[in-house]
Design a protein that fits this description.
14 strands; 2 domains; globular; AlkZ-like; DNA binding; alpha+beta; 392 residues; DNA-binding; three-stranded antiparallel beta sheet; four-stranded antiparallel beta sheet; single chain
């Protein structure tokens, strides 16, 4: 197979700016989330900060995101790729469930039953009774916390020890593990948090109904959407982002007729008809994106938009990205919020970052401070530069 046309760094950054809304404004959470395909949801604040950085009216971020998530249900928070929580457009829930969730769900349920058996806990029939009772209680309540569900189904409170005798031995409640399994099985989703938009304590709700799709067809559709937003991407990028085995990635690439191109890292892929240059270079755009933002976490290899020398300051040891400062489609530094609410930032890669760039970055920092208001945000996974800046 021919390698295909070369797509240079400048073109890739220009695509990133326009397709990932990096310094480009959208009109609604649904519009932005649809363009990004998925918003990283492990840290609840990331969803709002990622949208607020991209919406034309950031002051409406919290109200509009809550409307989309909890009233209109046009956005859904659920488990997805790599067993990670994301926020997806509602029309993608069936695709994500069939392409990714089912395989994870089978492993999760088997693991739960195995751990229960080792601990001498009740069997699968008992768990099935508890599950049915829990789902019925959730249907009656609409939304509920695990504690509220346990009042309706007391067996959810029962505990069992897992990994007995190991250094990582622990005690789980049935509710913790069962609700997790039901989540990856697509039966329940996270509802409204107990606190503000930064809270990580969620209520649970029954998952919206969706059709059951063929797994291979769903994988092809998810890959098509993602490549349209993030292409070009290497096979390694695709395998990492989806969490699928390489055979599934290659099958999906073939199913959508993906075109092969060349990037600096080697062979890569774009959706059919997207191989030619589509832009005149990255516009002079600045953005302050949050920790775990889907753009910074979108590719396994990030050399096209991140100088490897500044990476250690911006990522934790597990590979989670902290808050980042962007200019013209590349990461140039990081930012943090101090206890008094001030948003501070620092440029680490000064190539091409002049006075105009610094003025634009400062304006973005003020824009962020203004819409966040009295809320204080500390990333769930903290990074060296974020800690330093936050401490003053």
């Amino acid at each position: 197979m021919a390698d295909g046309p070369y797509v240079g760094v400048g073109e890739r950054r220009a695509r990133l700016v326009r397709r990932q809304w990096v310094g480009v404004r959208g009109g609604s959470p649904e519009e932005v989330a649809g363009g990004l395909v998925a918003l990283h949801g492990t840290d609840p604040a990331t969803v709002y900060l990622a949208l607020g950085a991209r919406l034309a009216e950031p002051g409406k971020t919290v109200a509009e995101t809550e409307r989309a998530l909890y009233e209109d249900r046009t956005l859904v928070r659920m488990h997805g790729m790599r067993h990670t929580v994301f926020v997806f457009p509602a029309e993608l829930t069936a695709v994500v469930h069939a392409s990714t969730g089912l395989a994870v769900a089978a492993r999760e349920r088997a693991s739960l039953l195995k751990d229960m058996a080792k601990a001498g806990a009740p069997d699968a029939a008992w768990l099935a009774e508890v599950e049915a009772s829990t789902l019925a209680a959730l249907a009656r309540r609409g939304q509920a916390t695990a504690a509220e569900l346990a009042r309706d189904e007391p067996r959810l409170k029962e505990r069992f020890t897992h990994s007995a005798g190991k250094s990582y031995e622990g005690v789980h409640t049935v509710s913790t593990r069962l609700l997790r399994v039901l989540g990856v099985e697509g039966k329940v989703v996270r509802g409204r948090p107990l606190g503000s938009w930064t809270s990580s304590q969620f209520r649970w709700a029954l998952a919206p109904a969706h059709p059951e799709l063929d797994a291979a067809e769903a994988q092809a559709e998810l890959l098509r959407r993602w490549l349209g937003a993030c292409g070009p991407a290497t096979e390694d990028d695709l395998k990492w982002w989806t969490g699928w085995p390489v055979t599934a990635v290659r099958r999906a690439l073939g199913a959508i007729g993906a075109e092969r191109v060349v990037v600096d890292e080697g062979p890569a892929y774009v959706v059919a008809g997207d191989a030619e240059t589509v832009s005149g270079g990255a516009p002079p755009s600045a953005a302050l994106l949050p920790a775990l933002d889907p753009t910074a976490m979108g590719w396994r290899n990030r050399d096209g938009f991140l100088d490897p020398e500044i990476r250690p300051a911006l990522f934790d040891r597990s590979g989670n990205v902290g808050p980042t400062v962007w200019w013209e489609g590349r990461i140039v530094g990081g930012w943090a919020q101090r206890p008094d609410g001030e948003v501070v930032w620092r440029v680490l890669d000064r190539a091409g970052v002049g006075r105009d760039a610094e003025a634009a970055i400062a304006a973005e920092a003020e824009r962020l401070r203004a819409w966040v208001g009295e809320t204080r945000v500390t990333p769930r996974f903290r990074t060296p530069l974020e800690r330093e800046l936050a401490a003053g």
